[in-house]
Amino acid sequence: MNFVGSHILSVSQFDRQAIRTVFEVADRMLPYANRQRITRVLEGAILGNMFFEPSTRTRVSFGCAWNLLGGEVRETTEIKASAIAKGESFYDTARVLSGYSDMIVMRHQLEGSVDEFAVASRVPVINGGDGANEHPSQALLDLYTIRKEMKDRGKNIDGLRIALVGDLRYGRAVHSLCKLLTLYENMHFILISPPELSLSAEYVDDIKRAGHKVLESDELQTGIGHADILYVTRTQEERFPNQAEADKYKGLFRLNQSIYTEYCEPNTVIMHPLPRDSRGNANELDNDLNENPNLAIFRQTDNGVLIRMALFALILDVVDKVEETSSKVNWYTARRF
Amino acid sequence: MNFVGSHILSVSQFDRQAIRTVFEVADRMLPYANRQRITRVLEGAILGNMFFEPSTRTRVSFGCAWNLLGGEVRETTEIKASAIAKGESFYDTARVLSGYSDMIVMRHQLEGSVDEFAVASRVPVINGGDGANEHPSQALLDLYTIRKEMKDRGKNIDGLRIALVGDLRYGRAVHSLCKLLTLYENMHFILISPPELSLSAEYVDDIKRAGHKVLESDELQTGIGHADILYVTRTQEERFPNQAEADKYKGLFRLNQSIYTEYCEPNTVIMHPLPRDSRGNANELDNDLNENPNLAIFRQTDNGVLIRMALFALILDVVDKVEETSSKVNWYTARRF
Amino acid sequence: MNFVGSHILSVSQFDRQAIRTVFEVADRMLPYANRQRITRVLEGAILGNMFFEPSTRTRVSFGCAWNLLGGEVRETTEIKASAIAKGESFYDTARVLSGYSDMIVMRHQLEGSVDEFAVASRVPVINGGDGANEHPSQALLDLYTIRKEMKDRGKNIDGLRIALVGDLRYGRAVHSLCKLLTLYENMHFILISPPELSLSAEYVDDIKRAGHKVLESDELQTGIGHADILYVTRTQEERFPNQAEADKYKGLFRLNQSIYTEYCEPNTVIMHPLPRDSRGNANELDNDLNENPNLAIFRQTDNGVLIRMALFALILDVVDKVEETSSKVNWYTARRF
Asked: In sequence order, which residues have a C-beta less than 8 Å from that of residue A18 and are 6 or more positions away?
C-alpha cells in the first residue's frame, strides 16, 4: 500500500504490512503526543475537519493530531449550516472544500457518502465515519491498542482470544475490527450478544473462512474466562428503529469488578470503543473497574491520537521530517501515556 | 482607495484602480494558496470569523485564507449562542469582539447589521454577507474569475458579453457583480429570468446609465448564444415568502451539455456563485457539464481564497512582507489551480 | 497558592497574594494583547476549549488569550454533539479529552460539573462557568478592572465603596466578585435590587463578618452617590422559572447619563459583566453613557484577555519565557487599550 496522497476510506485497504507501517509510525509519534517534544513539520498546512454529523471526541482527536504535527484546522460541525442542505451534491462539496485545505477528514451519516466525496476531492480524504459503514481510524487504534496491551503481557495478535460483547449487530467499531483481525492467525472470537443483536452471518463467515475459531453465546460469564481481550460495546441506540426497541437491550451485559475477578483470567484487558453508557439502565462497564489497571479504554483514545498522527504523516509523506523540525517543550506538562 | 486599516463593507467602495490593486495582490497569493510556498507573515495575528448565520463555504474560505497567511482563527457559527440573543446591541458586540482579534469577518442575516457593527469595531471589519444586501468578497472573486477566464481567451472585461441566468431578483451575488461590472466599458448584459424574478429596475437603470447594453429574456436559449460568460444562479429559496412560492421557479432554466453544445459559442465560460442545487427538481447546471473545461465554477471558489488573502494582506499592510516571511513546503501537495 | 499544574475552579482558591500574582502577570501581558509584540511561548500547545453551554464572548476570549501566547485551540460549542448526551460520565469525558490537550477550559450548565470533570482530568482545568455556581476568571477580571480604574483615580481596592445594582440573586458574577472583595479592607457594599432579587443572606453575612459595611436599598438614586464603582447587572432571565417572572424585574433600574450627572460623584466608574440588555424593556445601562469616559464595561472585557493569558502562563509555568520568545509585529495594528 502506498500511503502518499492516498485516501483512507476503509479498513479493507490495509494488509498486515500496511498495518505494521502505520503502527511503527504511530510509535514514533509518542514523544510529540506525550508533550516531550514538539514538531512543526506541518506548519502552514490546513486540515479540513468536516464533520457533517455531531461528534466531539473523534473530531477533536483528529484536530489535535493535526495540531500536534504543527498544522492548522478549519472545521465544520453540523450539516444544517452546509451547502449540502441546499441541494449541493457531494461531488460539488468535495470540489469546493478540497480547494481550501491540504487534507480532509469527513464524517457524514450516509453510508458511502465519504467514498463519493473522495472521488471528487483534490486532496486526500480520511473517512471519519460514514453511518454504520466504516470508521477505519477507530479500527486501527483498537488494533494498535490490542498489539500494545498484548506485547506488555508477552503475547502477540496472532493467537489472540478476543470476546466481543454487546451490540454486535449495529456496532460499526466491531465490524471494522473483525475485518482487521481476520488478517492475523489462529484467533479465537467469542461473540457474546443477545440473539437479535448478534454479529451478521457475513462477518462470522469471513472470520471462519480465514481459519479462526468462533464461539457464540448469549451469556456474559460463559466466554470471558478464556479471553485475552474483552471488547465491550454500548447499545447503538441511534441505529435502532425507536428508543423502546433499543431499551430492550440496554443493560443486558454488565461487566463489573466482581464479575471480572470471578470469571476472567488475571490481566485480561478490557476495551470499549467509547463512549460507555454510564446511566443506570445501561452501565455496560461499571465505574468500579476504573482503578483496574487492565481497563484499557482510555489508553485506546490516547492511542487514537498516535494513529491519526501516523496516518497524516504517512499520507503527506513527512514521517522522516517530523524529528528534524522538532524542538523542546517550553511549558509544564503532565505525563499522560 | 486606501486599504490599510479599512473596513470592506460594500462593492461601492471599489473603483477600477482599487479592483486592479486587489487583483494584482491576489495574483501574488497564488504560490501560497497553491501550496508551492508557505508564508508566516501573519504569525500571531487573530481573525475573528464571526458568522451569526450558518455558512460552511464562505466561513471556511475566509478562515483558510487567514491561515494561509500564517494567522490564527477564532470563530462563531451561529446566533443562538451569542449575546445578541440576550439583547446585546451590535455596538456592544463589536466593542467586545474587536478586543479579541486583529480583524473581523462578520456575517449576519440582517441587512445593514455589518455596517452598524463596523462603526463600533476597533479593528477592520469585512462584510461576509448581510442578508440580501452585500457580500463584497463574492463579487470580487466573481470579477477576478471573469478577468482570468477572459484573459485566457484573449479578451478583457471591457466589451464583455455576460448572460445572467435564473433568480436575478433575490440573488445577492448578481446584484453586487452588476455594480462592479458597470465600472467597465461597452458591456452587454443579457438578463434571463422569469418575469417575476427579473433584475430590479434600479439595477437595470444603473447598467444602462453607465452606457451598457441590456437584453432581457425569459428563455434560456435566446441569449446565451451571444455571451462570453453564462452566470447561472440558484433560486434563493430562503428569501421567498414560502417554499411553495420558491418551488414555482425551481428548474425553469436548466443548462446541460447538449444545450451548451447547441446554443453556445465555443469556450463560453460557465459560472455560478454556488452552491448549485443538484436535486432533480432544480438542477440549474447539470452534472454532465462537469468535464467541460469551460465550467469555471470551482475555479471561482478557488479564486475566493486568493481574493480573501489579498484583502487581508492589503488591509493589514503586509503585502510586501509575504514573500520575505515565506519558506518551502514540507509535505506532499497535489496541484490544485 | 502554587499555580503550576493547578486547576482553577473557584474564587475561593485565591488569597490576596495569589491575586497580586495574577494581576502582576496580567500587567506583563499588555504588550501582547495590545499587539505591540507577539510571543510564541506556547507554540505547539493545545487548549481544549470545551463549552458544553452556548457562549461566544467567554469562549472566544479564552481561545484568543491562548492564541496570543502562541498556542492552538480545539473547541466544542454545545452539548448535543457530545458523548455526555449518550450517557457518558464527566469522569470518562475528562479522561478522554485530557488526552487531547495541554489544558482544558470547561463550561457546563450543571453546578459542580467542572469540579467533577477536573478530578478525572490529566491536565489542568479552568472553570469557564458551571451554571449559577462559579466563573472565577470573570471575578478576577472584574477585580483587576476595579484595581486599574481605582489606581487611575489615585485610590486602592481597600476602602472601596461599590454599589451592586440589579439582579443580585441570580448574578453569578456578583457572587464571585463579592467573595474576592471580602479579602480586602474597609469596603462599603451598597446593594441595590428589588427585594425579591436581593443578595442572599449567606453572601451578606460573609461580607459583614469580614468587617465591611453593607447598605441595602431598592432605589437606584439612594446609594449611587456615595460609590466609587457602580457594578450594574442584567436580569439573568435564563435562571428564572419562566419569562413572565423574569420580565417583572426587567427595566427596574436604568442608569443613564442624566441620572449619572445628577446623582453620582464625578469619575464614578461604571461596570457591567456584559452582555448588557439594550432592548427597550430592559436597558439597564443606556447607550447615552457610551461616550462617558468612566464607562469601563469594554475595558473589562479587554482586561479579560489579560487575566486569562496570566492564568494560562502561571499554570503552565511560562511567565518568564514569554518575553524571550517574543518578536515584533508584522502587520498594521490599531491601538486598543
From this structure: A1, A3
**C55 lies in some domain:** yes
B46: chain C residues, CB-CB within 8 Å: 64, 67-68
Q: How far apart, in Å, do the first and last CA atoms of chain A sit?
A: 30
- Same domain for C190 and C313: no
Residue C207 within a domain? yes
CB within 8 Å: A101 and B64: yes
The distance from CA B49 to its chain's CA centroid, rounded to whole angstroms, is 17
Neighbours of chain C (3+ CB pairs under 8 A): A, B
Q: Are residues B199 and B164 in the same domain?
A: yes
Residue ranges of chain A with per-residue pLDDT less than 50: 337
Distance between CA A144 and CA C288 in Å, rounded? Answer: 63
What is the number of other CB atoms lying within 10 angstroms of the CB of residue C298?
20
Question: What number is the average pLDDT over the span C125-148?
Answer: 95
pLDDT of C335 > 60? The answer is: no
- Smallest CA-to-CA distance from B271 within B158, B174, B168 is with B174
Yes or no, beta carbons of A68 and C46 under 8 Å apart: yes
Residues in B touching C282 (Cβ below 8 Å): 87
What is residue C267's predicted lDDT score, i.e. its pLDDT?
Answer: 95
- If asked whether residues B207 and B168 sit together in one domain, one would say yes
CA distance B284 to chain A (A): 11
**For residue C275, what are the domain limits?**
137-298
Q: Do A124 and A96 reside in the same domain of the chain? A: yes
Residues B175 and B293 placed together within one structural domain of the fold: yes
Q: Is residue C3 part of a domain?
A: no
Pick from C84, C109, C107, C85: which is nearest to C96 by CA? C84
Q: Give A-chain residues touching B55 at CB under 8 angstroms.
A: 81
Asked whether residue C92 is domain-assigned, the answer is yes
What is the spatial distance between Cα A171 and Cα C151, in angstroms, rounded to a whole number? Answer: 62
To test the contact with chain B by mutation, choose from A52, A86, A324 the residue with the greatest count of B C-beta atoms within 10 A, namely A86
Residue of B39, B40, B332, B336 for testing the chain A interface, max A β-carbons within 10 Å: B332
Interface contact A77-C77, CB threshold 8 A = yes
Q: Quick one: which H or E segment has residue A161? A: strand A161-165
Q: Are C218 and C192 in contact (CB under 8 A)?
A: yes
State the total domains in chain C.
2
Q: Choose among C35, C39, C54: nearest Cβ to B80.
A: C54
Same domain, C113 and C166: no
- The answer on pLDDT for C337 being more than 70 is no
Question: What is the interface pTM, i.e. ipTM, of the complex?
Answer: 0.94
Does A224 lie in the same domain as A105? Answer: no
Domain co-membership, C39 together with C118: yes
Partner residue facing B102 (CB), from C55, C279, C331:
C331
Please tell me the distance from the alpha carbon of residue C31 to that of residue C324, in angstroms, as a whole number: 13
Q: Measured between CA atoms, how close is A282 to chain C, in angstroms?
A: 9
CB contact under 8 A, B330 and A42: yes
CATH number at residue A21: 3.40.50.1370
Helix (H, G, I), strand (E, B) or coil at B91: helix
Of B54, B287, B305, the CB nearest to A100: B305
A277–C99 C-beta distance less than 8 A: no
Q: What is the mean pLDDT of each run of 10 residues along chain B (337 residues)?
A: 96 97 98 96 97 91 98 89 78 95 95 95 96 93 98 96 94 92 97 94 95 94 92 86 84 92 96 91 92 97 98 98 96 74
Of the candidates C72, C75, C64, the residue with the CA atom closest to the CA atom of residue C29: C64
Nearest Cα residue in chain A from B276: A88
Contacts of A among chains (3+ CB pairs under 8 A): B, C
What's the pLDDT score for residue A336?
54
pLDDT exceeds cutoff 60 at C114:
yes
| Cα gap A325→A70, rounded to integer Å | 10
